[in-house]
UniProtKB/TrEMBL annotation:
Organism in which the protein naturally occurs: Mucilaginibacter xinganensis
Source domain of life: Bacteria
Membrane-spanning intervals of the chain: none
Signal sequence bounds: none
Protein name as annotated: ABC transporter
Pfam families reported for this sequence: DinB_2
Residue ranges annotated for the DinB-like domain, each copy included: 23-146
């Protein structure tokens, strides 16, 4: 791997992990009061739980699409958003967060060991680079919403 490619992979990894230009996912959910996970503030379509689980589902889908030609994506938009405004229990909350973190680690591993420019055989022009940028963009957008809701609810560190 040449230095330019290494630099690109390094920067993509930082972008995916967050924390440079925006809060990381871990920071966005750290210290969140459990009772606030399911609250939908007025004029907001989603609770923090729904945003967290949506990130999990969408990120999982992008990871699976990137590595598995037989992967079938969930039905859009119904299967990308949880219906319940709050997690069923603490295990559901922790499980969603753990999957987000482990899927992100797995995607970064894929990024580091793939030809990121090569179109995926089962796609229609997508490649790992595009999936990395889409994942980073998607996650950052919803992480920002989590932070905004926490601010609105008075539960952000400022």
């Amino acid at each position: 791997m040449d230095n330019q490619h290494k630099t690109l992979i390094n920067e993509l990894s930082k972008l995916l992990l967050g924390g440079s230009a925006h809060a990381s996912f871990s920071d966005a959910v750290k210290g969140l009061t459990p009772q606030l996970r399911g609250i939908k503030p007025e004029n907001m379509p989603y609770s923090i739980w729904q945003l967290v689980d949506h990130i999990r589902i969408a990120q999982w889908d992008m990871l699976q699409f990137s590595k598995d030609a037989d992967h079938q994506s969930p039905k859009w938009p119904d299967d990308y958003w949880p219906k319940e405004s709050e997690p069923a229990d603490e295990d559901a909350w922790k499980g969603s967060i753990e999957q987000i973190e482990s899927d992100l680690d797995e995607f970064i591993e894929l990024l580091e060991h793939s030809d990121i420019y090569q179109p995926l055989e089962h796609g229609d022009g997508q490649n790992i680079l595009r999936e990395a940028l889409q994942m980073a963009d998607h996650n950052a957008y919803h992480i920002g919403e989590i932070v905004a809701i926490r601010r609105f609810l008075g539960n952000w560190k400022s």
